[in-house]
Amino acid sequence: MTTAADIMHPGAQWIPATQTLDRAAELMARLNVGALPISDKNERLCGIVTDRDIVVQCVAKGRDPSAMTCGDLAKGTPRWIDADAGVDEILAEMESHQIRRLPVIRNKKLVGMISEADLAKHLSEEQIADFVEKVYAGS
C-alpha cells in the first residue's frame, strides 16, 4: 500500500507562529516552496502560511509583513495526515477541505508535505483528474 510517507516531499520545515511574514517569505524563497506549516510554541501544527496568504492578506491590505506574524494568519483547524495513511485517506482529506498542500505528521512531528506535484508523481491520471475536479470545483 502506498502511504503518505511514500508520496510526501520529505524535509518540510516549520515556521514558528511568532515569526514575521517577511521572514516566512524569505524562508519560502530559500526552500523554493509556496507554503510553510506554522508551529506553536510546542512545535504542534497550528496552521499553514502560503505565499498567496502573504500577498492577499498582508501586502494587498497595506499591512507591514515585518510586523505581521505567521500566527496572525493561522485561522481555523489545520489539516494534516499521518505518515502511514493510505492514498484514499490523503485524497479524502485534501478533496473534502479543498486544499492543495497537506502536512505529513509522524509521532506528533512534521516529517513532510504533500503537494499537487507529489500527487502527480504517484497517482493515475484518473485519480489526478478526480482530485483536480474536486479541489478546484469550489475555487
From TrEMBL:
Signal peptide: none annotated. SUPFAM superfamilies: CBS-domain pair. Residues 8-66, 73-131 form the CBS domain. The keyword Mitochondrion does not apply. The keyword Cell membrane does not apply. PROSITE patterns: CBS. This is CBS domain-containing protein.
